[in-house]
Design goal:
Blueprint: H1 14-25, H2 34-50, H3 57-74, E1 79-82, E2 85-88, H4 93-120, H5 146-163, H6 177-190, E3 195-197, H7 207-222, E4 226-229, E5 238-241
Antiparallel strand pairs: 1-2, 3-5, 4-5
Helix pairs in contact: 1-4, 2-3, 6-7
Main location: cytoplasm
Function: Participates in chromosomal partition during cell division. May act via the formation of a condensin-like complex containing Smc and ScpB that pull DNA away from mid-cell into both cell halves.
Protein name: Segregation and condensation protein A
């Protein structure tokens, strides 16, 4: 077979060169004719030496590997046992495995390069100025957010699950929002501190009672009859009346 015409320096390494030779010679990568492939590879190495170019050690190592495989192909092949069946070991198997792995990486790199080129054809939109669409209202000291209320409600729900027996007779309790509003105000007024902890406002841990009580709290805050305060971050939320002074949460 005539030697192929190759451009010096166009390959990234010996594996890249081997894949190019296999493609140009139109041979089956799973049935490599080692004599022809080794001849073409050595011709490339010699052409580099004739041009007085320094041959990288990795190219020389691959040349030695090809010569070794070529020599082993001429010797009787050792047999290995697979599923109690003896088969001849192919000296080319390791080379083929490495070539296929390198080919996969090569194709992946090419795909990433194509995606990078396509991305370069698009222009990104500059960030929009949304300052006119937002209104920043700083919370006063001790004031709570809706997230604080939601976390407190989830804490009540978890406590409900922990106290729920494995078997129980469920009795429906009916509470109106107005009744719970009066109940909350009464509990606050009866306390000398004119305040009550968030979790102490719930008469029971049934779902209906929890929801109704929570709606009653929100309505009292809306009517400016109580305020919700958290004196220390992450501690219990407290319901207070306005005669204690300070800001309120809506």
């Amino acid at each position: 077979m005539d030697a192929l015409t190759l451009r010096i320096g166009e390959f990234e390494g010996p594996m890249d060169l081997l894949l190019h030779l296999i493609k140009e010679m139109k041979i089956d990568i799973y049935n490599i004719p080692m004599v022809e492939l080794t001849h073409q590879y050595l011709s490339y190495i010699h052409s580099m030496q004739e041009m007085e170019l320094e041959v990288a050690s990795e190219y020389l190592l691959m040349a030695a590997t090809l010569l070794e495989i070529k020599a082993r192909m001429l010797l009787p092949k050792p047999k290995v046992e697979i599923d109690e069946v003896e088969v001849e070991e192919d000296p080319r198997d390791e080379l083929v495995e490495k070539l296929m792995e390198y080919k996969q990486f090569q194709e992946g790199a090419k795909k990433l390069e194509e995606l990078s080129f396509q991305r370069g054809m698009h222009y990104g939109k500059e960030a929009s100025d949304l300052s006119t669409l937002q209104e920043i209202i700083p919370l006063q000291e001790g004031q709570v957010t809706t997230q604080d209320l939601w976390n407190a409600l989830k804490k009540i729900a978890r406590r409900n699950l922990d106290k729920m027996p494995l078997q129980a007779n469920i009795q429906h309790e009916t509470h109106t929002v107005e009744e719970m509003m009066d109940s909350i105000l009464t509990k606050i007024q009866e306390n000398p501190q004119k305040s009550i902890r968030f979790d102490k406002c719930f008469p029971s841990f049934h779902r209906h009672a929890i929801v109704t009580t929570f709606l009653a709290m929100l309505q009292l805050v809306r009517e400016h009859k109580i305020r919700l305060v958290q004196h220390v971050p992450y501690e219990d939320i407290v319901l207070e009346t306005f005669d204690k002074g300070g800001a309120f949460s809506e």
